[in-house]
Amino acid sequence: MPAVQRMEGPLSYPLKKEFLMNVKCVVVALLASLITVPAVAEEEKAAKKKRNQGARKSAAVLVLKQLEPVGLTEDQIAKIKEIGAASTEKMKSIREEAGLTPEIMKKRAAAQKSLREAGKKGKDLAAAINEEAGLNEAQAAALVKINESRQKFHKDVIAILTDEQKEKLPAKLQRLTNAGERKNKGQAKAGQRPAKRKAQAKAKADSADAE
Prior knowledge:
Strand content: under 5%
Structural class: mainly alpha
Number of helices: 7
Oligomer: single chain
Radius of gyration: 31 Å
Number of domains: 1
Distance between the termini: 102 Å
Helix content: over 70%
Order of helices and strands: HHHHHHH
């Protein structure tokens, strides 16, 4: 059987050409990745900034949308935007101090949906939602403060309207303003109930130990 001869020396032209093409593809891919990664990161940063700006404007934007039939003046629109920005920053500060993260609020929203679908309603609903979502007393109290801030914003907006404009005020905004007061009372009680139950359980345990 004849021995296989080993190829030595420089690569043949076709092999050399293929090798160079492969190297070129690798280099191009590396350069593309170096350009793409920073670009994607920059896009994500810009998108996050845009979402944050949208969140800061949301309070005023929503109300301005509802007040379109009223016929606001430019001065009134500017004032509402100013009040809305201050209100949004205040609510953001309350959420951060209480540790009400987006994850917790998402969990609370899911608990609210689940309990309502289960037929839970009435004055115990808020307490059940907070308990199901794992909110502590400080977080439940923070929700009350947030609703109070939102309620004050709506009242401040209505206060700058003329009597004629108030007559054109959408019923939804009127209901929202009135419902906020009732909701705050319910949530304030809801925030107190977990602590009350713990105190009762502790008193019962102490009584059992004494016996």
